Prior knowledge:
Number of strands: 20
CATH architecture of the largest domain: Beta Barrel
CATH topology of the largest domain: Cyclophilin
CATH class of the largest domain: Mainly Beta
CATH superfamily of the largest domain: Cyclophilin-like
Helix content: 10-25%
Radius of gyration: 37 Å
Number of helices: 5
Strand content: 15-25%
Order of helices and strands: EEEHHEEEHEEEEEEEEEEHEEEHE
Strand order of the largest sheet: 17-7-8-15-14-16-6-5-18
Largest sheet: 9 strands, antiparallel
Amino acid sequence: MRHSRVEQTGTFINRRSGEGRNPAPCGRHWVAAFAGTTRLFFAALALGLALLIPRPALADEPAKSPAPRTMADVIAASKPADWRPLDPDNTLYLDLAAGRVVIELAPAFAPLHAANIKTMVRERYFDGLAILRVQDNFVTQWGDPDSDKPEKARAFGKAAKTVAAEFERASGGDWPFAFTPLADGDVYAREVGFVNGMPAARDTQAGKAWLAHCYGMVGAGRDVGEETGSGAELYVVIGQAPRQLDRNIAVVGRVVQGMELLASLPRGTGPLGFYEKPEQRLPIKSVRLAADVAAAERTNLEVMRTETPTFAALVESRRNRRELCNVPIPVRPIAASAKP
């Protein structure tokens, strides 16, 4: 027989007969039920209040690690002393119709090439020449399209036609800058890191150091002979870092602004990405040394110092991709109030 309970009275109704009966004695059962309900109510209330009260961390609970800093966080927290302005005596402005490319030279690694390039710039050697080659995932190269035709080739003026090879330099004694090493290994060198804002490598056993062919690095083209380069033909890496060229070609500097103007050009259809028709070449308006440009016309930039704790924190912020050529070196405009 099934029953329905009527909680208000404690009476049981017989569904079949409709008759009701009260268990005896009913008052005692009702009081017990009420007391049980009351206890449940207060127990639930106590549990709810306990959940609202903060409890101290257990000794064996691991503390939560702070959120990792991003590269943007590191740059935002940097101080003025973490940055250095570009040296006007070692900064080139390559002006194209689409805009300006800013190149920082590296005389600490390639002093002969840097000096010769500056001489050519002051001789106006590059003005009116052209970008001759854009090879996909490799380099963009500029120079004289008639360099192999003596009767048409651009005159060098006071600049040398060739200089000694500068593939590496001694890393001890008169080393002018701090070497900031990466903790991770490298396939092409015993140790890699940064020197004065440029990616570099070194072999302390051999006492040698050199600049690495990372994205944006500028090299001096040469012929087969080691001492056949002069800086008259320059290229910039626009693709995957061709580190196999390290210590085979002189690296003379780095593009610090305007890479998009060189990396987005139409690819050459000839062998090695050379343009096949003169009309495909992109004319160079001018190349100037920043020191020779009026202050109002300069592009005032500053580069993060790579020997600082701030730069070390920036490297760590990219810990999961900390290969030499994947660490960007920040560059930013100098605030108007800070300009000399």
